[in-house]
Amino acid sequence: MTDARVTLAMAPADDVVALDLWDKGVPPDLPTGRIVQVEPRRWWLIDAAQHTPAIAAHIADRGALSPIGGGLIRATLTGPGWRALLNVSGWFDSENPVFGPGQIAATTIHHVPVWIAPISDTACEVYLPGSYAASLGDLWTRAIGVTEPPPAPRNRPGGS
Questions:
Q1: What percent of the chain has pLDDT over 70?
Q2: What is the pTM of this model?
Q3: What distance in Å separates the CA atoms of residue 114 and residue 46, rounded to the nearest whole number?
Q4: Domains along the chain?
């Protein structure tokens, strides 16, 4: 169990859009929530689904947008112990204070591919395949001493 208090919430991540740029530039200022670079020429636009038409017009022929959140779940870990919790069955040094908001790390936890995105000193979002939400939810709730995991979120009808 972790010593510091952590709460866990899970929800579909259907608002995540991937932006691939074909040139070596950086994304222009976009009408979206957060932008995190996940690969050399790929960014995730978080809270961007409703802005996709405006973003597509803005980037024009510089790249492409792809909604990717339909199969992902967003687990939000809140509390001072989120970094220690991610070390349970994980192989990533989440304790490094340099790893902070605006960054994202791809790793595995409990044999599951995840993307960890800190949103503050006391919270992070973990993006994971929906098919593993129950498994990781169970692992984390046992580690924080909660007897019942949160209900596994379900994707909405229509593929999102």
A1: 88
A2: 0.85
A3: 16
A4: 7-13+71-143 (3.30.1360.120), 17-67 (no CATH)
